[in-house]
Amino acid sequence: MTQDGIDQTFVLIKPDALSLSLTGYVLSQLSEFHAGLRFAGAKIVHVTRMLAEEHYAEHKGKPFFPAVVEYLMGCVHYPDSPDKRRVIALAYSGPGAVTTVRKIAGPTSPHVARDTAPGTIRALGTIVPLKDAAGNPAGERMDNLVHASSSPSDAQREINLWFIPSDIMPAMRQYATEVCDDYYYLKDGNLSMTREPGSICILAPGQMAWKSDVEAMQKILQGEPAHCTLDAVVAKYLINEKLETS
Ligand code: ADP
Ligand code: MG
Description:
Radius of gyration: 19 Å
Number of domains: 2
Bound molecules: adenosine-5'-diphosphate, magnesium ion
Number of helices: 10
Strand content: 15-25%
Shape: globular
Distance between the termini: 38 Å
């Protein structure tokens, strides 16, 4: 919660919702009329493995982690059409945004949602049994149509992970920004302040960045521990740069 009492939350319309043409339904359930919240930002994102793994970092090591990453990347619902793999990333602003949207989304499991919270978005989802390479049962995948932040601190992490400051309307930008003074380049997973053949420019002087990103990159360059990984900083600057086919 911010000083003015206005929360923000982060929502993803996941690939299963897009493939089922439920986008309009989800947006309508989350509309200002129903939810009392306003759009702060929105974009269509072709999700890289780097971004999906960072988004679900808290689940790394769990049995369903590889499946949920592939699901978010769109590999599951668009196996033969990488060009169709996308999600809609949204930020909403308003009183109690996190709890309001979680309530409209419903419980994580679509089966639980159908039993205990009919009418929620996730009650329209599916549970898919998974098998290992030998064909034995290996857990399940919960195709639950939407992601919604589960706490204000998660919302901050997720909005900072998926959006750059200029994606968010100025009046609704809640997290500190900074105009960058330096060049930051990425090459082979390493950060550098000097350009080399094949390096990608992440930030350049004059560009507005999250203050937390600039601080993290400065720490990483000094070899000191940062509050987040390098991937969590750079993934948002690489969004929609190129088609990822695997
Ligand atoms: P939520 O999305 O409700 O915050 P979690 O953060 O626990 O739920 O999990 C992230 C996503 O991973 C879920 O939305 C769901 O798609 C998937 N998931 C969670 N738990 C499981 C599970 N036990 N088995 C399979 N998939 C799961
Ligand atoms: Mg969660």
